[in-house]
Design goal:
alpha/beta
Length: 261
């Protein structure tokens, strides 16, 4: 299609370093998805969901070093997904590690982000992962979320209880999507305009519910980036994670940030 930026045919579904990303996508705006910030526990079933603080600092530093700003989902959607040379930072579930380790680094590099909150588990633990053998991890409480907002960041909904939405009835899915928005707005007096599908699972019916509930967008987990004209209720995100452990990636971590534009 004429006018669209050229993207390599080698699609990547994760993000580790900006230089690696640009070889595939150029200056196209990514939506990055994070969960935990810090070292993964030895007994974690999902270590790939943990981004070490040092790596997170480096990822932010790379964007900062090339003057690649963070933008909001609202700005991205308003521009019909055509904003270039920017990054959208998103955090699913609302883990306390994002507040204690991630927020200071976001402040350091003057980056904005959105936190997708599981309403029924504010201040509690990730019970939806317990059946899978994942150790419990603390989630942000109300005051921490208020401090997150006061620091200039957004919140969105990640449902009431983190269910597999496609497995629910229409009414159950509607409650998870619609009621979570209302409750968050009542608690925090902050407009909740964006939704993140738990597990990245969605259907056309889920997208329709989200649109009718008054959201501006909804994020899934999909390979690649979003091009102009994309449906804002099935936005793709790249999972931010550690690179493969080898000598080359170790050296990349130790080298200073470089301007590659």
């Amino acid at each position: 299609m004429a006018g669209l930026p050229q993207v390599s045919s080698r699609v990547e579904n994760s993000f580790t370093h900006l230089s690696h990303y640009r070889k595939t996508y150029g200056d196209k705006t990514p939506i990055l998805m994070y969960h935990h910030i810090g070292r993964s526990p030895k007994d974690s079933k999902f270590p790939s969901l943990w981004v070490p603080s040092l790596l997170f600092e480096r990822q932010l530093g790379e964007f900062w070093s090339v003057e690649w700003p963070s933008i909001s989902l609202g700005e991205f959607v308003a521009a019909s997904c055509s904003v270039c040379k920017g990054v959208i930072l998103s955090f699913d579930d609302g883990y306390q590690s994002v507040f204690t380790r991630g927020l200071p680094l976001l402040t350091k590099f003057r980056m904005r982000a959105i936190l997708f909150v599981v309403v029924n588990y504010i201040g509690k633990y990730n019970e939806w992962d317990r059946a899978l053998g994942e150790p419990p991890q603390k989630l942000m409480g109300k005051e921490e979320i208020r401090d997150w907002i006061a620091a200039g960041h957004e919140i969105g909904s990640h449902s009431l209880s983190h269910p597999h939405l496609p497995k629910l009835s229409f009414d159950e899915a509607r409650r998870e999507i619609e009621d979570s928005k209302k409750i968050l707005e009542d608690i925090f007096s902050f407009p909740v305009r964006h939704f993140s599908y738990p597990y990245g699972e969605w259907t056309a019916q889920c997208a329709e519910i989200a649109e009718k509930a008054g959201y501006e967008s909804a994020c899934q987990i999909g390979e690649g980036v979003n091009f102009p004209g994309e449906n804002p209720f099935c936005l793709k995100r790249l999972t931010a994670r550690r690179p493969k452990r080898n000598l080359r990636t170790l050296l990349q971590m130790l080298l200073p940030y470089r301007h590659t534009a």
